[in-house]
# Entry
Amino acid sequence: MCGIVGYIGVNDTKEILLKGLEKLEYRGYDSAGIAVMNANGVHVFKEKGRIADLREIVALDVMANIGIGHTRWATHGVPSRTNSHPHQSSSKRFTLVHNGVIENYDLLKREYLADVTFVSETDTEVIVQMIEKFVYEGLDVLEAFRKTLTLLHGSYALALLDEQNSDTIFVAKNKSPLLVGLGSDFNVVASDAMAMLQVTNEYVELMDKEIVIVKKNEITIQNLDGETVTRTSYIAELDASDIEKGTYPHYMLKEIDEQPAVMRKIIQAYQNEQGELTIAPEIITAMNNADRVYIIAAGTSYHAGLVGKQFIEKMAKIPVEVHISSEFGYNMPLLSEKPLFVFISQSGETADSRAVLVNIKEMGYQSLTITNVPGSTLSREADHTLLLHAGPEIAVASTKAYTAQLAVLAILADVTAKSRNLDPGFDLIHELGLVSNAIEVLCDSKELIEHISREFLAVTRNAFFIGRGIDYYVGLEGALKLKEISYIQAEGFAGGELKHGTIALIEDGTPVIALATQESVNLSIRGNVKEVVARGANPCIISMKGLNMDEDSFVIPEVHELLTPLISVIPLQLIAYYAALHRDCDVDKPRNLAKSVTVE
Ligand code: F6R
# Structure
């Protein structure tokens, strides 16, 4: 979703800002802009489209040592040059970039800014005009900034330039992520450390409702009462090479191929010196104290939660409910007496999930976040965190984070089971090793999977994924992957459910991808395939070795039945990748989507 960068120092800032914005491209955006300030004033460059389009219009001869930049994912107003950030106050003294949503912007407009002519349709312009209004009324810029913030309802990460304070970037945040990066003779601002790794890996985290006065050689953090806050910095444990594509044509393909290594990393990270799987005792106590686990997540992470429910119920024998976070927010089920909330989120920033976390914390319930991003909002705010160790996931379509989520959920289930003297029935370390090898085999079968993708999806406008039990959940994920990057309308169904309505959509040649990895339902899912074939469907059966039959299109290696989602998803990820490639779609940055969905 939207991204923010800022720089103040001794070097020319244009290239630093543009490079920073390029690092945030993966998060999804539809327009971008930068503002740089020098002795001649503030120069704003913005454009609809890609950073490459913005680069074309940035005047190379404008030199400046201070600037801010933004990638916008439209919420208020269409994607356009006018609506893109930075936005300026009427006199052009103040220039602002903003991530988040101001819920009461219309009210503020009517109450405070009735005589102001607005240029854009955005909520952001209201903020910058309010700051100017309060300065006209006699406040200094910091007081005006603070007063404006106290009137805002909603989420914001802000970076502000003031033409009359040419040595300062004013920064604030509430609910939307924002960091200040430290350097020698310069400081930076970024909504994601990755953006500014090019210049520094030392960052200071900001808390909600804090303001930072960022100068070249110092930063001052204040709360909204103007009291100074001290905070130590941390080193972002990110390797700049992790966020490069290397020789890969797309991040998605690189991240699919990284999955065997991620499995091994997870096994290592969760193993103690005796070679046993281990999880912080307080997390296991929280699991054991719960009479029911509520998994809260969105999108792919929700699909991982559905599989996680099977792991926890079958291995640790604790009942689990899985909920879509945006639904749970306003439609809370009757809770059990001692619930434990488990938030699954690759980014750790999903606003819908965070809204639930805030709510259940107020109710006094315990929470655990399973995330890929240490220090992310959901990680900071939950009682406990388990990390995915998947490395940065840049492609919008989640792949390695999904399999990492499954592996960590399996480990959580396994360690909890053992703490309850339950025998999970298999050696998870050994089985995850087999999973890792199986993923490697599948990643080596790209040619065959590309062929399958062409054969089944070359010209179709829709596709169905079917499975039973755990295969159904993987089908949901396969359908999501396909639709989000290839724009083929794809849906996942429980094998037995298709005939209750959706079978009406089956026509000659409609692709139906069926998963058959579970012995107990192998014959029933094949029965469902026959039903659609009788109506003209073009079936693609993906089965597991040992259960395979002549009619199958692809056979995955054999792993423990409960762990099949970790590998049956790989051909589905690759099928989606090749379908998008053949349709000339932007694989890593699909239209309308954002990597980190920070608005509710
Ligand atoms: C799909 C995808 C999304 C995310 C969803 C939740 O490939 O990536 O569906 O899974 O937006 O995001 P996180 O996991 O960051 O909370």
